[in-house]
TrEMBL record:
It comes from Paenibacillus mendelii. InterPro entries: AraC-bd (IPR003313), Homeodomain-like_sf (IPR009057), HTH-like (IPR037923), HTH_AraC (IPR018060), HTH_AraC-typ_CS (IPR018062), RmlC-like_jellyroll (IPR014710), Tscrpt_reg_AraC-type_HTH (IPR020449). PROSITE patterns: HTH_ARAC_FAMILY_1, HTH_ARAC_FAMILY_2. Transmembrane segments: none annotated. This is Helix-turn-helix domain-containing protein.
Amino acid sequence: MNKELLEEKKMHGDASFPLQVYLAEHRAGEIFEPHWHESLEIIYILSGSATFTIDDDKHELQAGDYLFVNSDKIHGATFSETCRFHAIVFDLKMCLGTGLDICNHKYFNRMLERQMLLPNVIDKNSAIYPDIQQWIRQLYGKYEQKSDGYELYAKGLLTLIMASLFEHGQMIEPDKNRLNKTNQMNRLKLALNYMTSHYPDTIPVKSLADLSNMSLYYFCRYFKSVTGCTPVEYLNRLRISKAETLLATTDKRVIDIAFEVGFNSLNYFSEMYRRTKGISPSEARERARIAAQNRIGV
């Protein structure tokens, strides 16, 4: 699952049914790039393990674990072994009723206004874990089958999940410390968006710290605690991600791609590409070519 390193603007699903389910697989050493979006997300680890970060909180997940990601939270992951997971991404508004629906007032509106947040993780030993597990698996199954009524199942199962979390006191009410963290996170997003918009340029770390209204020392520490890497590493990974797309979709020379995405040396670009992706740029292009031929049956 390739995600842009900025706020996602794309819609998951469509306006009439804003829900989409993804199946992702990442190998050891790969990175699920930090990003954020307005939609809610439920991640279910199918096999392997991963270290997920939500804002600056780390979660070690194993097969069978669930992770709930609230709106506008920066999240990403690193992998020490091959990991497969489902990601259910949806707009909470799909569950809303109309008019004076009491469920809107008591529950959904409070979530939309960030007065109540989903818990990031559900303890496997908790009383609600078996039900949550069953409902998420059913949701994925109905989505894959897409038989008549699957949209109703999806809305109903999501509502059951939310109802169970409310019933068992699992929802989280933001405190002042959490609001302060949100403030910091919003300032960090300014730097992340700037890097995304200007990745081919030379970007001094000090200018990013100033943009975020943080000291250079604190900015570097905070940046790494959230993204899992330094600003320079993040920028290089962003450039490599852009280069990966160009290698797969254009006939441009490797050296031209290297300079286009912001590298000043072909050797350094090749070294960083291999370090990040495990293969050379030329090998990546060849793999993309073979994959494209297989898709069209050449």
